[in-house]
User: Which sequence fits this backbone?
């Protein structure tokens, strides 16, 4: 499974299945629908029903334990947040889902790991930077997985990976509201090629 999480902020449920299919065909099999999108639980459900056997579908911008349950009930298997909330992490793990809380500082990283996070979403990654990632990576447990989100694109994948990044969350570089499945497919293929080159 490639270490890219596609962030479909603003997607409509009527587009969800086709756009998810385009991403999967291009080789991106982790997909999140931020909860500040239109009818996000309907989009999660549509994608999970159509593609849940070949992709990990989930939600982003998840801020409460109640929303974790709603994502689970819609068929989601991954919870991504912009912040580190131990209650959300606990609810995610109790529901059997993967937890990707947002962190930026060493304190947040260790708090998220202590709470049971599956992996860490470094957000906004551009504020941490390459040197910051190297510094944090030096003190975290070696098995910690770090996903860079915010201001990161395929042109600098290799540099981030060299500094210790485990993967990436990609939003507007892959999808903007109104984009067709074909638009998304073309960008996804470029993203996958850059990913594969960075991890080669």
Assistant:
């Amino acid at each position: 499974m490639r270490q890219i999480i596609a962030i479909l902020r603003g997607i409509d449920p009527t587009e969800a299945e086709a756009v998810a299919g385009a991403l999967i065909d291009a080789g991106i099999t982790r997909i999140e629908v931020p909860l500040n999108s239109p009818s996000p639980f309907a989009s999660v459900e549509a994608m999970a029903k159509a593609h849940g056997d070949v992709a990990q579908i989930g939600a982003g911008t998840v801020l409460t334990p109640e929303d974790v349950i709603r994502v689970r009930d819609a068929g989601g298997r991954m919870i991504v947040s912009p912040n580190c909330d131990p209650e959300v992490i606990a609810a995610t793990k109790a529901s059997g889902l993967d937890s990707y809380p947002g962190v930026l500082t060493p304190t947040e990283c260790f708090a998220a790991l202590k709470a049971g996070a599956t992996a860490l979403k470094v957000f906004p990654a551009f504020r941490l930077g390459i040197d910051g990632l190297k510094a944090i990576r030096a003190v975290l447990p070696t098995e910690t997985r770090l996903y860079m989100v915010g201001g990161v694109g395929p042109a600098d994948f290799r540099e981030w990976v060299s500094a210790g990044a485990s993967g990436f969350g990609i939003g507007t570089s892959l999808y903007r509201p109104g984009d067709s499945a074909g638009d998304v497919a073309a960008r996804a293929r470029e993203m996958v090629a850059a990913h594969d080159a960075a991890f080669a």
About this structure: DSSP finds eight helices and nine strands in the chain.
